[in-house]
């Protein structure tokens, strides 16, 4: 949801800024812009479109900021692209997040004579700083006062041409400082400066880091209260450069699909001992797990589907009620949360605004909280009572794939771990499931060997404009995720629903041009599922299915089918989602879609 980068040092921004910004364009890609301080002036360049096609050279200089946008306030245009300037063109600002009180601030500033040239919420920031500068405040004080007047979530980079200073302010949206040999970097995600800085300082909310272009650039951190903070410890960045490259794959999404066996291995490494789950992150949390009377899971999108699978797993293994909620709805009801209620937030990025807001609401209501994230040190991880990292490595493709399967692996381990603590399942049963989990990477690789079959199925079906994805029991949640994958990257209409629910209305849509994709890979409720397949066939609907290799009975009923290796029902989503990810990918590729950056989407949704 917008990416921001900044640089100040001895090197040339024209080398660093475009390269850093390119690393962040998964966050938003409808337009972009730069400001470089050169000869005492802001040299601004803004363009509409994706950075992929940007071949111009930006101005040389030692200090600058840049932005890649996912539009919220104001349509996609050069005028609305960042950076935004103050009236006197002294201050340039790039921003990720939303300034919620922008309308009232804008009205007040306009009354004072400020002239706005964009429709964005961001533009109030340079004008507000300018207003404080006009009152005689210094740059640092003016920025601090401005931050105190802003409501909402923001990460800001502010460049002052008069004092030759760059600063980054954080409140709710991510902002990291990179320490490199050639200078200081700012970015929304350490991936932004992975090529140039090996250490990072993670700013906290309510902090502003100032860097001045004087000899060696140095960093000073102040709070929004104006007080200087003690120097923060820089941490080594544990990212490998190859993790941020396509490595010969046509798209990041395809690379990330094929990385899943290794991701499951790294996610489960050290978390299984003597065939039993071990979650060190939960040491000290066990008392709470034993006392838990109810679980509420909050998440969005793909992470929500992982949460639905978790509901199935935990109810079966812990025998406590579990409720899964769209995080965006949670805080606008009156959720009944007691102190023995555990609220689990699931988020790949750990920054999703809706999930974070739900987590904060749960804490406010006295719940125990836990997070499952892919980004260690992310806000959701930091603000939760305990956090488990999925260890999938950076996921760059907007469509979530390896984050989903590693979330399921962690959730399965969590469900099994809790069952051990609570003694709600036998050790034999738990060991059997763990054994099947350990076989997943090998079985995933077996599926990849048959990728041409799913590619063929995708190719012949890419002519259809509508699909139903259906399943029962745990397969239903996989169907939901399969439908989401297809719609988000191919723009084809795809719905997921319980197979038996179809007859209560949706079946009216079925005809020869409306195929149904059945997921029956868990092996549960197969007789019932076959009945639902017959219902589609009786209405001339085409049937594609994902089944397990022993299910010749279902195979006979389908126009096309793809078999996955047999496994335990509770492990099956880890395998059955793979052909659906590939199906979505190959359909979208056949249609020539921009797979890694689908229209209207962004990877990290840090606005409500
Ligand atoms: O980072 P999160 O897991 O919190 O993100 C939640 C959703 O925005 C995300 O899963 C989205 O649905 C995916 N891009 C879908 O592939």
Account of the protein in words:
With 608 residues, this protein is α/β, with parallel strands linked by helices. It has 3 domains: 3-239, Aminohydrolase, N-terminal nucleophile (Ntn) domain (Glutamine Phosphoribosylpyrophosphate, subunit 1, domain 1), CATH 3.60.20; 245-438, 3-Layer(aba) Sandwich (Rossmann fold), CATH 3.40.50; 448-593, Rossmann fold (3-Layer(aba) Sandwich), CATH 3.40.50. The chain is built from 19 helices and 26 strands. The strands form 5 sheets. An 8-stranded antiparallel beta sheet has the order 3-2-4-1-10-9-11-14, with helices on one face. Helix 6 packs antiparallel against helix 14 (440-449), helix 8 (301-318) runs antiparallel to helix 16 (474-490) and helix 14 (440-449) packs parallel to helix 19. It starts with a strand and ends in an 18-residue tail after the last helix. The protein binds 5-amino-5-deoxy-1-O-phosphono-D-mannitol.
């Amino acid at each position: 949801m917008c990416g921001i980068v900044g640089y100040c040092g001895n090197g040339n921004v024209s080398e660093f800024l475009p390269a850093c910004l390119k690393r962040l364009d998964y966050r938003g890609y409808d337009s972009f812009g730069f400001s470089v301080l050169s000869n005492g002036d802001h040299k601004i360049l803004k363009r509409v479109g994706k950075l992929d096609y940007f071949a111009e050279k930006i101005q040389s200089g030692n200090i600058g900021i840049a932005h890649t946008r996912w539009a919220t306030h104001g349509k996609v245009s050069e005028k609305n692209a960042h950076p935004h300037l103050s009236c006197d063109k002294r201050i340039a600002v790039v921003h990720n997040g939303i300034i919620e009180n922008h309308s009232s601030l804008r009205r007040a500033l306009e009354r004072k004579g400020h002239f706005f040239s964009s429709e964005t919420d961001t533009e109030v920031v340079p004008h507000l700083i300018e207003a404080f500068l006009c009152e005689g405040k210094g740059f640092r004080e003016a920025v601090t006062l401005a931050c105190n007047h802003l409501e909402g979530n923001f990460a800001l980079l502010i460049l002052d041409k008069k004092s030759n200073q760059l600063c980054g302010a954080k409140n709710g949206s991510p902002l990291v400082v990179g320490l490199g040999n050639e200078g200081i970097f700012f970015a929304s995600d350490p991936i932004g400066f992975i090529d140039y800085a090996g250490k990072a300082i993670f700013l906290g909310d309510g902090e502003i880091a100032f860097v001045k272009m004087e000899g060696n650039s140095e960093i000073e951190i102040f709070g929004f209260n104006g007080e200087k903070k003690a120097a923060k410890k820089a941490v080594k960045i544990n990212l490998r450069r190859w993790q941020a490259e396509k490595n010969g794959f046509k798209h990041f999404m395809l690379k990330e699909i094929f990385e899943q066996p290794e991701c499951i291995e790294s996610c489960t490494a050290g978390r299984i001992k003597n065939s039993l789950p071990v979650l060190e992150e939960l040491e000290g949390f066990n008392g709470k797990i034993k006392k838990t009377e109810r679980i509420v899971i909050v998440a969005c999108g793909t992470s929500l589907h992982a949460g639905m699978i978790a509901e199935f797993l935990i109810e079966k293994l812990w025998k406590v009620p579990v409720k899964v909620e769209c995080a965006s709805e949670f805080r606008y009801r009156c959720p009944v949360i007691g102190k023995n209620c555990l609220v689990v937030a699931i988020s790949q990025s750990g920054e999703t605004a809706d999930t974070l807001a739900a987590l904060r609401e749960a804490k406010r209501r006295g719940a125990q909280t836990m997070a499952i994230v892919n980004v260690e040190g992310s806000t959701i991880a930091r603000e939760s009572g305990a956090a488990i990292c999925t260890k999938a490595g950076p996921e760059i493709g907007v469509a979530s794939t390896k984050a989903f399967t590693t979330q399921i692996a962690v959730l399965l381990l969590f469900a099994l771990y809790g069952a051990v603590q609570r003694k709600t399942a036998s050790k034999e049963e738990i060991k059997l499931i763990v054994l099947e989990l350990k076989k997943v990477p090998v079985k995933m690789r077996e599926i990849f060997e048959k990728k041409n079959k799913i590619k063929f199925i995708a190719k012949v079906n890419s002519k259809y404009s509508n699909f139903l994805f259906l399943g029962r029991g745990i397969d239903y949640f996989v169907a939901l995720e399969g439908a989401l994958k297809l719609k988000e990257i191919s723009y084809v209409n795809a719905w997921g629903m319980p197979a038996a629910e179809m007859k209560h209305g949706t079946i009216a849509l079925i005809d020869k041009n409306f195929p149904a994709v059945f997921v029956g890979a868990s092996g549960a409720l197969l007789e019932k599922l076959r009945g639902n397949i017959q219902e589609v066939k009786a209405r001339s609907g085409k049937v594609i299915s994902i089944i397990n290799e022993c299910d010749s009975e279902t195979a006979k009923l389908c126009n096309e089918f793809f078999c996955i290796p047999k496994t335990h029902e509770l492990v099956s989503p880890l395998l059955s989602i793979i052909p659906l990810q590939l199906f979505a990918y190959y359909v979208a590729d056949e249609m020539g879609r921009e797979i890694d950056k689908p229209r209207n989407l962004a990877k990290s949704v840090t606005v409500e």
